[in-house]
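pls ignore typos typing on phone
guanosine-5'-diphosphate + seq
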Amino acid sequence: MRIKVFTAPHLHEALSKVRKDMGPEALILDRQQSKDASGNTLWHVHAALDSAGAAPTKPATAAVAHPPAPESAPASKQVDVTIRRLERLVEGLGNKESASLRQALSGIAEQDAFDHLSKLGIAASHAFDMAVDFSLRNPTASKTIRWGKRINPGQQRHTVLFTGPAGCGKSTLIAKLAAHYSMKGIRVALLSTDTERMGGLDSLKAYANTLGVPFFPLNKVSDAANILRQTQSAQLLLIDSEGWSPRRDIGLRRQTGLWDAMQCTERFLVLPANMDEEDGMQLLAHNTASSMTHLAFSKLDETQKPGKIVNWSIVAGMPLGYCSFGPEVPEQMGWLTDQALTALLSKASRETPL
Ligand SMILES: Nc1nc2c(ncn2[C@@H]2O[C@H](COP(=O)(O)OP(=O)(O)O)[C@@H](O)[C@H]2O)c(=O)[nH]1
Ligand SMILES: [Mg+2]
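k done
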């Protein structure tokens, strides 16, 4: 981990030096105030960047007021990632930073934006990063969040897996996508690995019947090759799965074996926005989450704090994709972009009593 101290007459200037030098992954460890020889205030911001974080740009030697602290011994990438997640979690849940970060914003509009984003559940350091753009209604968090590239099954075949906790809305999202793409003339097939649970296949099978698209249960790895053959002509193969969580991951090894056998092109972890933020963080810290390629969010209509999806996205560092904001099939879903996120967070200001 690299730790540096950045000094400037104003806190927001010191923070912007941090962002410029260390990038959006930097963690703010501490801030201190002092006076120079003429009695003017100086802010010293201590920031850290772990070795798995964004590559630093040129060292901002002029910004370093104190000798940087020695680097810690190199840790394995896995440990670094876990530490970063835990630090982000602590940072995300703490309010200590909030008042001084708010104060560091120069204009009333920016401070209002910061207040609004904070009330929606966005961690103070992210709300600070987003406040200027958000106050101007510019696409926000465009640099700190990774945005996924929309799939294009008309151009190449996609095999897309959806996993996540039980009841998060996997089957519903798959039904929405199946309806959406079938209506566009794309050849869709559905598959489910939720075969062990009583009724696990039922809802998706019913949607498949209604939409007139083929449906396959996948029970054993040895059946995968046969299903892949039978679905060869499908342009989009959507795979449903059994729910899992860090506390209930029985059978997960069997599930992951089935997913691997299907040679997925994309793997979405679906997080319901009405889930407790900390529980979502625990899910993201689980090994299974690291084998996913994208994040999707469901139940955005069922939370007062949609801003937690920003915290989750930044901690996960995974590209974002689908979002769902209602139970209706085939509507109430979309693909998250920086504009869509800005609209979602602005909409919450008009519709959510805060
Ligand atoms: N309000 C709301 N309800 C949803 C949304 N997505 C799914 N649901 C509902 O959540 C429940 C569980 O959804 P389901 O797709 O069966 O979850 P699964 O266990 O992950 O497959 C159902 O009653 C759905 O209608 C959503 O975005 N908003
Ligand atoms: Mg289901």
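The pocket of magnesium ion (ligand 2) is lined by residues 170-171, 194, 203, 240 (CB under 6 Å). Confidence is low (pLDDT under 50) at residues 53-75. more later
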